[in-house]
Amino acid sequence: MKRIKLALFSLLLALTVPGFALAAGGGGAPIVLVADTRKLDGIMAWWANLYNESHLYFTILTVVLIPTIGVCFGIIADIIMHWIGLDLKSRDLAEH
Amino acid sequence: MDWLYILMPIAGVKIFWPGLVILGVGVGIIGGFFGMGGAWMVTPGLNILGFPMAFAIGTDIAHMAGKSLISTLRHGKFGNVDYKLGVIMIVGTVGGFEVGAQMVMWLERMGSVEAVVRYIYLALLFLIAWMVFHDVNKRRQKEKAARAAGKEVDALATGIEWHKTLHKIKIPPMVNLEVAGIYCSAWLPIGVSFFTGWLAGILGIGGGLIRMPALIYLLGCPTHVAVGTDLFEVMISGLYGAASYTYKGRTELVAAIIMLCGASLGAQVGCVATKYIKGYGIRIAFGLAVVGCAVSIAMKLLGANVKELRVAMDVGSTWLVLGLVSGLSLYIFIKMVQGAKAELAAKKTA
User: Fold this and answer.
1) Structure pTM?
2) Transmembrane ranges (chain A) (predicted)?
């Protein structure tokens, strides 16, 4: 009985916000599809130009860069934590 | 103080870059700890910092892919990732996500997509929160009953045990998921992932918020394995999402890289903290995060509906999300440092 009451209460909480849902859309800011490269130089200008020239090349660059940076940071953190002396290969099973 | 702002070349907006680092560290810790991407925290956060919403979503997904990769590697070393389960679940997740996305298109044609999505989102968050706290409560009752009988409750016992009923389904092929310690019909993880993928597709989120509790309560994964395996799924879906959003021209790579610098450090802290905080500690903190998320959405919706409350609700919900992220990150960080200190001290005395 207590469980049913709790479930009903949770459901009621969700339903006591009628009409709010309609307002959830938001205005949305204007989307820039062409990057303004006039104020940029160096690598930033190269990036922006690549974006303007081909979204495909920009996508390939992103998909390669993100995991590479992730792995580099992961390795650095591994080295630091190993140097501190933490055991990073085992854990105790605390619960099922 | 101009040096604190950086011009984003694609979006064309000047952004307070330390804010990006702080947001990255926070979501890295929480994501690594709970096994989720954390879009519910980052997307509004980036929007508050000044990104147009479409760029906020794209940038969040791009950084999420990198951060989840680091977290998955770390959890993998702890033995927290069931790769076999993760691969099986991808089948259901992709199928479910596609069905969900098609349903959104259908609802859009009917003109009711906004209302349906918001109601499902709120109902789902309350349901997850109820499930988590009900589980914690049941586990306490078991402990109480065991103490009264002069016994001790099994350390591996859980409160809710729905998975035991679901494991009785014996439709072949049966699979043995060694890391998770589960022997069940392959249709169970496929069905669960299809359901969670469908919900994620309808709600337009990565799905970690739903998949993590589903792995625990429906499949019976230990909390740590649920966290690690979910991160493996987030990593794959994050990479696909990053490619998709970038191809559509909605990713600010500079911001994603700045955030990734903070998130990669935070993710390591969050992952290592799972070593020192017990499974039920993770579940309780997760439940609190879900409640905070639901309340902030309700506040936003209330503000949008009642003009007099708009400013107060907007400010309130922003502070709630930021406070929640800061509070949880701080809690996890302190617990990690305490645990690491104790481990080092034990090593010295040994």
Assistant:
1) 0.76
2) 56-81
